[in-house]
Design brief:
197 residues, 2 domains, Tetracycline Repressor, domain 2
């Protein structure tokens, strides 16, 4: 039985993540990705015109899954402190190879940064993620009793930048940057903000 479009996409994402991890985005070929997924080159091209199109689709999928996961956690844990602890408990995310591969996240950002024609698509998604993360932060801080004005976009940009920074630091110096260093930093920021009420 032929795989559905969603199954094909999931297999290509997982295969691409593995090939990118082994060869880097620049060194990976469409043939390697298709082969690792158990498909022909033609099957790849029936889904994506280029490797870059696949990359952007992977990033789009990652952002959608991250948003859905964060909103579900916020629903269950509206308080700011509880929300961060719930994030801490979340580990592997099924079906999201970017979430589970920090080096690939950083490499994708650098790959896109070097290609001006790809930047608008990633920039649009980045702006959306800033808004979502900012709104989640504001909502959880409001639930914890903070009523001061908060700029949603600025908070979202700050938190995303901190997360990207910790991803990079963990890749360079994992001994001094534990896996939950980002969440530790967020918990400290929360304590400062909530303590200053």
């Amino acid at each position: 039985m032929r795989p559905t479009r969603e199954e094909t996409r999931a297999r290509l994402f997982e295969a691409a993540a593995g090939v990118f991890a082994e060869h880097g985005i620049g060194g990976a070929t469409i043939e390697q990705i298709a082969s690792a997924a158990g498909f022909t080159r033609g099957a790849f091209y029936s889904n994506y015109a280029t490797k870059d199109e696949l990359l952007l689709a992977m990033y789009e999928d990652h952002c959608e899954r991250s948003t859905a996961a964060a909103l579900a956690l916020l629903d269950a844990h509206p308080d700011a402190v509880d929300f961060v602890e719930a994030l801490r408990a979340e580990e592997h995310r099924e079906g999201d190879p970017l979430h589970n591969n920090p080096i690939l996240q950083i490499e994708l950002i650098l790959h896109v940064a070097r290609k001006p024609e790809l930047r608008p698509a990633l920039a649009a998604r980045l702006r959306t993620m800033r808004t979502v993360i900012g709104e989640i932060s504001v909502s959880s801080l409001r639930a914890a009793g903070l009523d001061a004005p908060i700029a949603v976009q600025e908070v979202g940009a700050l938190l995303l930048a901190i997360e990207d920074g910790f991803l990079l630091h963990r890749l360079i110096d994992p001994d001094s940057t534990p896996a939950d260093a980002y969440l530790d930093a967020i918990a400290q920021l929360q304590a400062l903000v909530l303590g200053a009420r």
